Amino acid sequence: MSHTFPDLPYAYDALEPYIDAKTMEVHYSKHHRTYFDKFIAAIKGSELENTQLTEIFANISQHSPAIRNNGGGYYNHVLYWNCMSPNGGGAPSGDLNEAIINTFGSFDEFQQLFTDAAINTFGSGFAWLVVNNGELKIASTSNQDNPLMDVAGVQGEPILALDVWEHAYYISYQNRRPDYIEAWWNVVDWNTVSENYAAALAQGR
Ligand SMILES: [Fe+2]
């Protein structure tokens, strides 16, 4: 069995005051867990039990909505958790910082474009920073789709994920998605995002 449900990399209250403990508990132990369990149920007994998620997503148009929605929900949340840290915030350094400046003009400009993409994601979805042919791109997807899927408008290797489903922010921020996004920048773990960037380039993405 190649698919496992990972531990949350920090305590439920670790991201307070930006993201509250109750939101993290429900989001991880209920929402994420349910996506994982339903994904496992959807692939049970098929060869997908031993197929890498990236390979499943590359052919997602050939699979059922249950696999698309729950497989996406399983993967997307793992990246979202891993891109946050109680020691996060600030701006990246090194190669990622250089790439962001070369691509978007400045970190502030990037932050504004990413924020706009997240705010303007209609309904439920995710905003992404992806590597596509060695270039950085900002993307937004609906529901539990992601840029690894063959159905995505902007494709590439995701290195940063922001969940903009209401379940990610409703308890603290109600309908105020922009307030949640502004708070979220304070917990973005740029060390992890930089590692994801280096790994994507090393894989020739
Ligand atoms: Fe979520």
From TrEMBL:
UniProt feature coiled coil, ranges: none
Domain of life, per lineage: Bacteria
Enzyme Commission numbers on file: 1.15.1.1
Cross-referenced Gene3D superfamilies: Fe,Mn superoxide dismutase (SOD) domain, Iron/manganese superoxide dismutase, C-terminal domain
Catalytic activity: 2 superoxide + 2 H(+) = H2O2 + O2
Manganese/iron superoxide dismutase N-terminal domain boundaries: 2-85
Keyword check for Metal-binding: yes
GO molecular function list: superoxide dismutase activity; transition metal ion binding
Keywords carried by this UniProt record: Metal-binding, Oxidoreductase
One Pfam family it belongs to: Sod_Fe_N
UniProt-annotated binding residues for Mn(2+): H27, H77, D163, H167
InterPro entries: Mn/Fe_SOD, Mn/Fe_SOD_BS, Mn/Fe_SOD_C, Mn/Fe_SOD_N, Mn/Fe_SOD_N_sf, SOD_C_sf
GO cellular component entries: cytoplasm
Keyword Zinc (UniProt): no
Domain Manganese/iron superoxide dismutase C-terminal: start-end pairs: 92-195
Top EC group: oxidoreductase
Family (UniProt): Belongs to the iron/manganese superoxide dismutase family.
Stated role: Destroys radicals which are normally produced within the cells and which are toxic to biological systems.
Name of the featured protein: Superoxide dismutase
